[in-house]
Amino acid sequence: YDRAAVSMSNYLRKYPNGLFSLKAHYYAADSYQRQGQPDKALPHYLQVCQSARCQWTETSLLTAAGIAYDDSNYVLADSLYAQLADMAENQSNRIIGRLGVLRCCVMLNRESAINAAADALLNEPRIETEHREEALIAKARLSYSQGLRQQVITLYEPLLTSTNGEYSGEAAYRRAECTYLTSGCKPAEKIINDIVQDMASDYWLAKTFILWADIYYNDHHNNLQAKQTLQSIIDNYEGAELRTIAQERLDAIILSEAADTQLDEEEDPMEIDM
């Protein structure tokens, strides 16, 4: 393949618009890709993608889009995946194209395009469960970021039974959180009790305990239980992010208690008989 890449490149330098230039671009791209040099392969693949449709177009779009995505060039990858989705004759390639568009929209935070990309993927017949769930969670996360709490609960519902523990954990937590914000602590605590009995994700279980501590503190005014719940996360959970959040919550409660104690002492000073 190294000799082929050199030969194709030499031909293209000599005959950039030659009769066999398109074939040379494809074989050069394929040779570089097989040698693990995607940066050298990409320009040749793009030449094929930008030319009239031929026998190498679909493969070139698929490979070039993957190279661009892996290189975090999501704008280029989005364009290539979109072309692939529109013109692919192979159903699996069309689904890869739609999935790629969705992922690029998410990475580029194109909120206005995420739902459309997810729906296009969901409308594909016979898609894999993992792809269906990826589309659903993209729609659910978008709704969450937009504050559409009731819609969040509905969109996460099918993911509660996902075999992907991170998806099911996120769905369960968001359901509890949004239920708390829309319907109060009682229905939320019922959901939380179910979560702690069967949660596959340590991260989302810790998030759930932080939510529960908030409910103990804000709604039940049970400072002791709130502090114990937060302390259990600090002591047992390994992730730095949620341990920091739990510590900040715990410190805030302790500080609030100290302030209340000081206020009580100022309002009710000790009287000493002289």
Short account of what is shown:
This protein has 274 residues and is mostly helical. The protein contains 14 helices and no strands.
Description of the molecule:
- The N and C termini lie far apart (102 Å).
- With 274 residues, the protein is an all-alpha fold.
- The protein contains 14 helices and no strands.
- Helix 4 (57-70) runs antiparallel to helix 5, helix 5 (74-87) packs antiparallel against helix 6 and helix 10 packs parallel to helix 12.
Number of helices: 14
Work out the oligomeric state of the chains in this entry.
single chain
| Residues in helices, as a percent range | over 70%
- Mean pLDDT over all positions: 92
Q: Unreliable segments (pLDDT under 50, ≥5 consecutive)?
A: none
Helix/strand order, N-terminal first: HHHHHHHHHHHHHH
Structural class assignment: mainly alpha
Alpha carbon gyration radius: 28 Å
- Tell me the overall shape: elongated
Q: Compute the separation of the termini in Å.
A: 102 Å
The portion of residues forming beta strands comes to under 5%
Instruction: State the total count of DSSP E strands.
Output: 0
Characterize the main sheet.
none
Question: Helices, strands, pairings?
Answer:
Layout: H1 2-14, H2 21-34, H3 38-49, H4 57-70, H5 74-87, H6 91-107, H7 111-122, H8 129-145, H9 149-156, H10 165-183, H11 185-197, H12 202-218, H13 223-236, H14 240-267
Helix pairs in contact: 1-2, 2-3, 3-4, 4-5, 4-6, 5-6, 6-7, 7-8, 8-9, 9-10, 10-11, 10-12, 11-12, 12-13, 12-14, 13-14
Describe this protein with a few key phrases:
274 residues; mainly alpha; 14 helices; 77% helix
